[in-house]
Amino acid sequence: MEKFYSDCQKYHLRITPQRVAIYEALMNDNSHPSADAVYQKVKTKCPNISLDTVNRTLINFSERGMIDTVACSGHGRKYDPNSNPHHHLKCIKCGKIIDFTNNRYDKLKIPEEIKEKFTVLGKRVVLTGICKNCTTKRTARC
Fold it and tell me: What's the pTM value of the predicted model, to 2 decimals?
C-alpha cells in the first residue's frame, strides 16, 4: 500500500476510502479481474459505490501507470496489478489470463524498423490458446 500512497501523492490523487478499497481489491486478486469483478468485491466494503466509479477509478489508475490494462477481446478489459516483468497466457474460450515469466521473452530484440517509428516502453508477450480447464470440458463433451 506504500506504493499506492506515494503514487497518489505523485499524481495528485486524493486518497479516498473508495480508491483504497478498489486498489486493495485489485492487489489481492491475481486473476486479472474485470471492473465488474472488482466492483463485486468492493461493494461489500463500500455499499454505496457504483460500477461506474470503480470503472473510472481503474482507468484512472491505468492511465497513470499504477496498474496495467489487459485487452481481452470478447471478455472486456481486465486489470493487472502485477508490475513485475511478466507475460500472459490467454484462453480464447473463458478469457482466463495466466501470468508467466521467461527470460528469453524478456530479452526479445526490438527490430530496427520498429525503433525508427516507435519508442518502445515495455515488452509483453501474449500467447493465446485454450486453457487446461476448457480443454478438459471440451474433451468431456466428445
Answer: 0.81
